Structures are given as structure tokens and as C-alpha cells.
TrEMBL record:
It comes from Acetobacter conturbans. It holds the Pfam family HTH_Crp_2. Gene3D superfamilies: Winged helix-like DNA-binding domain superfamily/Winged helix DNA-binding domain (1.10.10.10). This is Helix-turn-helix domain-containing protein. Residues 104-152 form the HTH crp-type domain.
Length: 199
């Protein structure tokens, strides 16, 4: 039986090779040199290196981690699962857990932004979009996620709600970016006793 092979164009191969070369050049910067740079510059270099490495080896290519991976704080994650199980039945803890799990596997690289929209989450969980808003509100109160409003051109009101995972709980991206975000973010409110095991 013939084997199906993923087609990679010459341009794609060339772009991946260029990305790999630039990433390699950035990786040659010494720690001694980097420590004299402002924190924002080090973070920008880290993000650029990570983005280039990802471009050189996209998730669509078969590899050790097809589809990428998310780093978890085991203690924080277990504590969140326990806290979700302890929710009153009116809060539908099974659906809250389902949403939390979906959040963990749908994070944007280096920002921790939840990539699924409210409607997409509702479709996957099997509930209404309004109920997803309540679930996300529950996770927000627990300090598991935070919400921002993003203005959309032509859309009135405060803008679309955009959610981000607490970097003390999980991360999808470079460790330097995660440390920078974690330094500006408190651990989940109900789980501060686990701060020592969050890194």
C-alpha cells in the first residue's frame, strides 16, 4: 500500500531553513552579554528565538510532540481540580472541569491566551455561550484565568472578552516569557499556599 507523504514546497523548506539559521544565531548570544541587556530586550530575544524555532519545526510536522505541549504546575493543577470538585452542584463542576481542561490544551505560544472563543467552548462542552461566560467567571474568581477586553473594529461596547491562563498554573511557550508573566501575576487566590511549588 502506498504511503501518504505530506507535501512540503521549496519555499516552505527555504523558510524553515532560514528560521533555523536565525534561531541558531540568536542562541549563540552569551549569558554574559544577555545579562547586561534590559529585561524587555531579553524577553524579546527569547520570544523571537522561540518563534523562529517553532517556524523551523512547525507542529504539523511529525515529531516527539506533535501538536505541541503545555507545561503544568502539578501541585497547582491538582489543587484546582480539587477546588472544582468542591464547587456546589449549581455551578456544574463537571462542566467547569471540562472547560478548564480545554483551556489547558488551547493556549497561545508565549502569551498564555486561551485560543478558543466562547462559542467554540460552548460547542465542545455542549452548553450555551452564556453558561460558558459563567464558567469562565468561576475560573476567574478562583484566579485560574484572567480576562481582558479587546476592542474589535466595527463592534460597539467594551469589546470581546479575551482570557489568559495564570502562568503559575500552566504555560505554553518559552520559560523566559513565562517567568516574566508570572512575576506580574499572583498565584490563584484560593491556592496561594502552594506558591512554593508553582514554578
Amino acid at each position: 500500500m502506498a504511503q501518504i507523504v505530506r507535501l512540503t514546497t521549496h519555499q516552505q523548506r527555504s523558510e524553515r531553513e532560514e528560521a533555523a539559521q536565525v534561531a541558531e544565531q540568536l542562541s549563540l548570544l552569551s549569558d554574559e552579554f544577555l545579562k547586561h541587556l534590559p529585561g524587555e530586550a531579553r524577553l524579546a530575544i527569547s520570544r523571537a528565538t522561540y518563534a523562529l524555532q517553532k517556524a523551523a519545526r512547525p507542529d504539523t510536522t511529525e515529531g516527539l510532540w506533535p501538536g505541541g505541549f503545555t507545561m503544568l504546575s502539578r501541585n497547582q493543577t491538582i489543587a484546582i481540580w480539587d477546588a472544582i470538585r468542591a464547587l456546589p452542584s449549581d455551578d456544574r463542576p463537571h462542566q467547569v472541569r471540562h472547560v478548564f481542561d480545554l483551556v489547558l490544551v488551547n493556549l497561545r505560544q508565549d502569551t498564555g491566551e486561551v485560543l478558543l472563543t466562547r462559542d467554540q467552548l460552548a460547542e465542545k462542552v455542549g452548553c450555551t455561550s452564556n453558561h460558558i461566560s459563567r464558567i469562565m467567571g468561576t475560573l476567574e474568581k478562583m484566579g485560574v484565568i484572567r480576562r481582558e477586553r479587546r476592542k474589535i473594529e466595527g463592534m460597539q461596547g467594551r469589546g470581546m472578552a479575551v482570557y489568559f491562563i495564570n502562568p503559575h498554573v500552566a504555560w505554553n511557550g518559552s520559560l523566559d516569557a513565562r517567568k516574566a508573566q508570572a512575576a506580574e501575576t499572583r498565584p490563584p487566590m484560593q491556592l496561594e499556599l502552594l506558591h512554593g511549588g508553582a514554578s
